[in-house]
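Form 7-S
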Amino acid sequence: MRFRFLALALATALVLNAKDERLRGAFRKPAEHGWIFVHLEGSPAVRGFQHGYLLSAEIQDAKRAVELSATHDTTQNWSQLRAVAEKISWPKIPTEYREELEGIAAGLKAKGVKLDVLDLVTLNEWMEFPYYYDSLRKVPGSVPEHCSAFVATGAYTKDGRIVIGHNNWTDYLTGSRWKMVFDIAPESGHRFIMDGVPGLIHSADDFGINDAGIMITETTISSFHGFDKNGVPEFVRARKAMQYSESIDDFARIMKEGNNGGYANTWLIGDRKTNEIGRLELGLKNVTLDRTKDGYFVGSNFPINPKLIAEETDFPIDDPNTPNQVRHRRWDQLMAEYKGKIDVEAGKRFETDHYDAITKEIDPNERTLCGHIDKSSRGLKGWQGPFAPAGAAEAKVADSAMAEKLSFAAGMGHPCGVAFNAKPHLKEHPEYAWQSGLLEDLKANAWTVVSAEPAYRP
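Output:
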């Protein structure tokens, strides 16, 4: 089956090459288990053109969904968001990524799509806008949190090497578009594979592996406030770190340079060359890097550094029953229970875990590692409001052996097996009717393994 897909992709690439030399070497595969795989390579402008050309329909669709989500969350229209992107972001984007974004716009234009480079900058920065506007309004900690993640090594894993995993909590409006696997072989830096959204040059939920052995993921710092409009956009730093990091120190340095506080995360990093893992809690004022060769780090949107908590968040640290604290306890339970046994299969179980540590029941909600707020039976507050169509929309897991091959296990939609059907949900909860027409079903897709193609050899 794999060879059939590869042969079809290569044949498609040959046809495209006859149209434009910039498409040489690039291809996309037919969707498999919900994922669309695309291989891009070359100079910034060339790989951007490939991106825009090969994914033109998906980029148009993603832009519509992101625009609806971003304008609803910020109460700003798209023109206003574009103006912010042009004023505070575009001047800080280095030449390499300007050229890549301009290349995407050129690829879209070649397919007759009327989106320009500012639309693409705005699209890439969508996760940072709430931080910017909250800083202007002086609204503390209103940015929603995302994701459940772990990284483990040494005595905690089955083979003593690194295992890393992440699931992406988001609104289903955009989460259903988080269906890309990008395999990018840039002209400079390292080849890398990551999940992502069409039109974005970064992962945005930030799961990826590069050929220098760096394994990356993150979870958002909950109730965080702070933004420096003179800083470098987070999406630029995240992409640069994915492409150029060769060590945990490299990663931390790149993420800290020009830090603007936007989309503030606790980053989990592994270096398969040294078997060391790290946790970078990246606030705007307070930054902490922890590391170990024998242990684990987990993320479920809880802040760690007491100084960061006091100065940069409104997190209710004294309440042990907040959803993020409950998920934290569940992570610690699982790490203890699986000590010495953590592998990719265990990681899949973690990222689809529905155990509520408060009720001691299997009930996916905002307190479980894999939460589906729409499924809450008790009308819990929820991540984006009661019964919001939001939660864990996809998941990824990899170990060091997979990282050597630029490969990871991926579950699109709900790999936990719980499907979401948009139409009946909107009928039952008309307060979310504003998403009608763009909110999509999330199927219970099976896990699959995605790998750099043609077969990567270190």
